[in-house]
Design goal:
single chain, 641 residues, eight-stranded parallel barrel, seven-stranded antiparallel β-sheet, 24% helix, elongated
């Protein structure tokens, strides 16, 4: 079956037209002329461009231009006039009635993305945009990633932010100072391209969605702008947000969803070339590896080029610093490596990572897909570590089952695997690791360490669900313990927005279209649980100050990270030999999930404690001398000699 699928895929690729550079420059504007180009199915009979003065079917000044076929499936026309601020659509005659589309690579659109807009992109640049500088980054291991949805972060009145639910909220001084005080240095924005499920014509709408339903991949979403009806406003405000974050030393990572579209028939891909951009099963049906009704065919030349050019466009036009690939396991390895190579030619420090799985079976050989198990063949691309995530808090498939935090035995080896960055380590028994029978990362920077993210219960809800009758005090202890594991991992740490203020989502597992009342951050929690924010920010500061926690190299990790024998319910290790050139010398880390004080043997010596009993103080919380350390229930200890 796999061999047949591979042969079908290869035949499809071979039958496609050769790909040339700039295929997706669909609208090239100058004051003297605008050139329209489109790539369609070779079977298309004709293509028109309809140019209008306004974003309306009833617009005055309608001009219809017939495009010329310049090659098989390639169409072009140049209009010698200044078309700035006008709108357009392509009428593609696949059949009697045309398919109407702004193209597959629209760079500006009107309300709800149905029409393309012709803009001078330089008019969308905020003041000083040409001097915007990407914050420096020596290694991905230096990142502290903070996953954020625009509405969640700022929409509640308690946020005190003016531009609630908008791009501009993240440019406000209060938001910037908060992020700096927390210490994160990279914001992972949930999908911020133009998506289909929210009606942008309804201002301050109560509609909610995460945005994993792509419509126009290369234009910012209008509902997060202050004026969705103006094509330039959403672009300018997105850039203003990026510029403000960059000035604060914070990188911006974009969540990209190239693996599927909102639907098939309404997709711009389908309207230009029916069937080409999607995979099909052997019986001719559209494959659904995304769980959303379709999956794109990244291995086909035009789809591959589209993804490469789209990523490059977000970097060059919007100064994006990284990409998180939704359901990366649907994309083929060759395409992901081609994207990495294209990004390296611009800036190798731009981080790329994704979900190393799909939501269903794909119509492409699994051994050629960017699955987690194939991460070793993805040069410089990271993947989320569900091995450690589920070992800490319990399996994704059952919210009521706990893990290490709930006292479930047998999770320690999976946590050790995550702490080592998913690389091979002589002290880790892979036969006892969740989901993986072999190390899947070549370097620890290929592993994203996390315990919660947007598409699952947040950590507090999971703890309440998996540990019945849990008290607030126990909840806080276990929350801090979980994030300690994340922040001392040799992988790249990743935190869901609001976990530092003990957010909850009322127990909703999949809140993608739940209202703001479920998804919002309650900023009053900062005064209710100040110790939680203080611990998170303190631990982030420790990681940033001490290179032993972020060595970034597999050989260094194997040399310097030594696990200690520990009782059940406990994981302990030493970062030795001044790991990473750390001034602290040997560092001992102990995670105790037991509900009682538990002792562990550590190397004999005199130590300064910097983390203990739910507190962090880099200058010291006390001292310890000896080799038999007792750790308080459900807490972590970090100390150095």
């Amino acid at each position: 079956m796999k061999i047949k699928n591979l042969l079908l895929s290869l035949l499809t690729v071979a039958a496609a037209p050769s790909v040339q550079a700039q295929t997706f420059d669909e609208v090239v504007y100058s004051p003297k002329s605008t050139t329209f180009s489109l790539v369609t199915s070779p079977d298309v009979r004709s293509v028109d461009v309809l140019i209008t003065d306004t974003d309306s079917d009833d617009s005055n000044g309608r001009v219809l231009k017939r495009m010329k076929r310049v090659a098989d499936g390639r169409w072009r026309v140049t209009v010698k006039d200044d078309l700035k601020d006008k709108y357009y659509v392509f009428n593609v005659y696949n059949r009697e009635q045309p398919d109407v589309t702004p193209g597959v690579f629209a760079k500006a659109v009107g309300l709800n993305g149905r029409r393309g807009a012709i803009v001078d992109m330089r008019e969308t640049d905020p003041e000083g945009w040409n001097r915007d500088v990407r914050p420096a980054l020596k290694s991905p291991s230096d990142l502290i990633i903070y996953e954020l949805h625009h509405r969640d972060f700022s929409v509640d009145i308690s946020s005190g932010l003016r531009h609630k639910g908008k791009y501009l909220a993240l440019s406000e001084p209060k938001a910037i100072e908060y992020l700096k005080r927390l210490g994160v240095n990279a914001i992972h924005l949930l999908p911020s391209f133009d998506y289909a499920s929210v009606d942008e014509s309804v201002p301050d709408s109560r509609q909610y969605n995460w945005g994993y339903d792509p419509l126009n991949y290369n234009v910012p979403e209008g509902s997060y702008s202050t004026n969705a009806a103006d094509p330039k406003t959403r672009i300018r405000e997105f850039k203003t947000m990026v510029q403000a974050l960059h000035k604060a030393g914070i990188r911006v990572i974009l969540d990209v969803v190239y693996n599927h579209t909102f639907d098939i028939e309404g997709s711009n891909f389908q309207k230009t070339w029916p069937g080409y951009y999607y995979r099909k099963t052997q019986d001719g049906k559209y494959s659904d590896g995304s769980g959303c009704g379709n999956e794109t065919a990244s291995e086909k030349p035009l789809m591959r080029e589209f993804m490469i050019e789209s990523v490059k466009y977000w970097i060059e036009e919007y100064h994006i610093d990284g990409f998180r690939f939704d359901l990366m396991g649907i994309h083929d390895i060759e395409t992901m490596n081609a994207i990495r190579a294209a990004v390296d030619s611009i800036d190798p420090s731009i981080y790329i990572y994704g979900e190393g799985w799909s939501a269903g079976t794909c119509a492409y050989p699994e051994e050629q897909l960017a699955m987690k198990r194939n991460t070793g063949r993805l040069d410089g691309i990271g993947a989320f570590c569900d091995d450690m995530r589920d070992a800490l808090r319990g399996p994704f498939s059952d919210d009521h089952k706990g893990g290490f935090l709930a006292g479930v035995p047998g999770q320690e080896e999976s946590i050790k695997f995550g702490l080592a960055g998913a690389v091979s380590h002589p002290q880790i028994d892979m036969s006892r690791v969740n989901y993986s029978d072999a190390p899947w990362a070549n370097q620890p920077t290929q592993m994203v360490a996390y315990v919660s993210c947007h598409d699952d219960m947040c950590l507090t809800d999971r703890l309440r669900t998996s540990i019945p009758y849990i008290s607030d005090d126990e909840l806080i202890r276990l929350d801090l313990l979980a994030q300690t594991a994340v922040l001392v991992s040799q992988g790249v740490p990743f935190i869901l927005c609001g976990e530092e203020m003990l957010r909850d989502k009322k127990g909703v597992h999949n809140s993608f279209r739940s209202p703001d009342s479920v998804n919002h951050l309650d900023w009053h929690n900062l005064s209710r649980y100040p110790q939680v924010f203080d611990y998170y920010s303190g631990l982030i500061a420790l990681r940033k100050a001490h290179p032993a926690f972020r060595m970034g190299d597999a050989d260094e990790v194997r040399r310097n990270l030594e696990f200690l024998d520990a009782p059940a319910g406990m994981v302990a290790f030493v970062l030795k030999n001044h790991a990473g050139g750390d001034e602290w010398g040997n560092i001992v880390v102990v995670l105790n999930a037991n509900a009682k004080p538990t002792s562990v043997r550590v190397p004999q010596g005199g130590y300064t404690m910097v983390v203990a009993d739910g507190k962090v103080n880099a200058k010291g919380l006390g001292t310890f001398t000896g080799d038999n350390l007792t750790v308080a229930p459900q807490t972590a200890v970090i100390m150095h000699d």
